[in-house]
Amino acid sequence: MSRALIENYFSAFNAGDTSTMLALVAEDVAHHVNQGELRRGRDAFATFCSHMGVSYREELRDIVIFASEDGTRAAAEFVVHGEYLQTDPGLPEARGQRYILPAGSFFALRDGKITRVTTYYNLQDWIAQVSV
């Protein structure tokens, strides 16, 4: 169950299907963004997804999912293939730059929903790639 939940989450991400992603997270989801603030709740997660959809076009490839035997935790390693579409405040100017970035996410799961998403990647590597 936990592996399928994460597979569905990443399939929805790659399809740009935010409504399915939102259906997979709990109402009280905790979203820990790499070098960013903690966002709590499905509404905050929806706002984040909306912003990402405007500023970035990303596809996750080479996804490897790990799941705990008790079904309460999962993790995934993947490679982000992206395009920087619209300038994010405090970051380099967007000019359609492409980037390839290794990343990983950690999940807490409860009652068939994702209750925590924590994503890590090397921000300095991303900045270097879009600053060329």
Which descriptors apply to this entry?
4 helices; 6 strands; about 45% strand; Nuclear Transport Factor 2, Chain: A; about 130 residues; six-stranded mixed sheet
Shape: globular
How is the main sheet built?
Answer: 6 strands, mixed
CATH class type: Alpha Beta
Counting DSSP H or I runs of 4 or more residues, the number of helices is: 4
User: What is the spatial order of strands in the main beta sheet?
Assistant: 2-1-6-5-4-3
Q: How many discrete structural domains?
A: 1
CATH domain topology: Nuclear Transport Factor 2, Chain: A
Short description:
Helix content is 33%, strand content 43%.
Summarize the helices and strands and which ones pair or pack:
Layout: H1 2-15, H2 18-24, E1 25-32, E2 38-40, H3 42-55, E3 56-67, E4 73-84, E5 98-110, E6 113-121, H4 123-130
Parallel strand pairs: 1-6
Antiparallel strand pairs: 1-2, 3-4, 4-5, 5-6
Structure commentary:
By secondary structure, the protein is an alpha+beta fold. It has helices spanning 2-15, 18-24, 42-55, 123-130, and strands at 25-32, 38-40, 56-67, 73-84, 98-110, 113-121. The protein has a single domain (2-130), classed as Nuclear Transport Factor 2, Chain: A. The protein has four helices and six strands, in the order H-H-E-E-H-E-E-E-E-H. Strands 2-1-6-5-4-3 form a six-stranded mixed beta sheet.
